[in-house]
Amino acid sequence: MQSEPDDWVENVRMLEASLGAVVPEDGSLLRVREQRGNGAGFDPTTWRIIAEMGWLALRTKEDDGGLGLGLREATALCAGLGRGLVPEPVISAILALRLVSAAGAGAPEAALTGETIMLAAWQGGASDCDPTAGVTVSDGRLNGRKIAVEGGLGADIFVVTLAEGIAVVPKDAPGLTVTGQQMHDGTFLAQLDFADVLAEVLPCAGMTTFVREAMLMHAAYLMALSERAFEITLDYLRMRKQFDVPIGQFQALQHRATEIKLQLELARAAIGAAGRMLDRSEDPHLAQMAILRARSRAGGLARLTAREAIQMHGAIGYTDEADIGLFARKAMVSAGLYGVDTDLRRQFSAMRDEREKAQ
């Protein structure tokens, strides 16, 4: 199912049509509410549906049982998940399968079918986007720490990134401690502490590229949740009246809404450009810069939209019953995942300067 130059458009249509299996067409967030703080923060039954739809195998090579689709398809899927605030760690699972496939180990059938939940553990520190950091290997034993593993409490297997490659580690491996932290949106991030954990290390070229691909998918998720939050806010501005006039007619609020709309379209364009460059195998240096730009824009957009949406809703926006509060919480939690905006901009500037010197 490898994408031809124009096949991605039809692939996106099919993926968007399949989203109804997980994201209610009426926009209901009842399932999202029910999963908050429950178990691992996501639903194992829904996970199996996600696997059956083939979403986890989206970026896995066809030779390993995957779909072998491009970043434009992957970002379209993640955008649909973002609009529905889907809590399942789909991006982490896609990354894990991508890493295992690239290492030549073949994608485990149980991970592809959803019977086993395999997630990526790549981040070594809060401001660290280097997948080789955090855990070291000596004499076949892992020591160190990985943080911010989305849905890690529900994982059966972790794909751990190292300077030497990857290690596939079961959750119950001797010496591995998994600690969960409940986030503001009701999901959990896991911290993995390794103390002489015995593991086989597999060489895996391209880890940084794969993590940045996940960054781009996460950017699409952030962009789409911001878009949906903006839509809810516009509906409220049309409905809420003050002095017998819809507050959406107030010029000050119109200006603030216009700024959100502008930033939303800039983020959408940046994500689309980055996906196109990667799918067409254009200049890899420029493509990586495009990912950093897109992810930084999406993070800033999510924070802006969350802040403005709550302010425009007033006190009702802070209540648990208001759906906009769920979007604001998700934005606050997710905007810092897959890189901190300031660090991403610093990386972008460094790559730009490096390119200018080389020319």
Automatic annotation (TrEMBL):
Q: Which residues form the Acyl-CoA dehydrogenase/oxidase N-terminal domain?
A: 38-87
Output the superkingdom of the source species.
Bacteria
UniProt cross-references to SUPFAM superfamilies, sorted A to Z: Acyl-CoA dehydrogenase C-terminal domain-like, Acyl-CoA dehydrogenase NM domain-like
- Which GO terms of the molecular function aspect are on file? acyl-CoA dehydrogenase activity; flavin adenine dinucleotide binding
Q: Which UniProt keywords apply?
A: FAD, Flavoprotein, Oxidoreductase
Task: Identify which cofactors the protein needs according to its UniProt entry.
Answer: FAD
**Record-linked InterPro entries:** Acyl-CoA_Oxase/DH_mid-dom_sf (IPR046373), AcylCo_DH-like_C (IPR036250), AcylCo_DH/oxidase_C (IPR009075), AcylCoA_DH/ox_N (IPR013786), AcylCoA_DH/ox_N_sf (IPR037069), AcylCoA_DH/oxidase_NM_dom_sf (IPR009100)
Q: Which residues form the Acyl-CoA dehydrogenase/oxidase C-terminal domain?
A: 216-339
* Membership in a protein family: Belongs to the acyl-CoA dehydrogenase family.
Name of the protein: Alkylation response protein AidB-like acyl-CoA dehydrogenase
Organism, scientific name: Primorskyibacter sedentarius
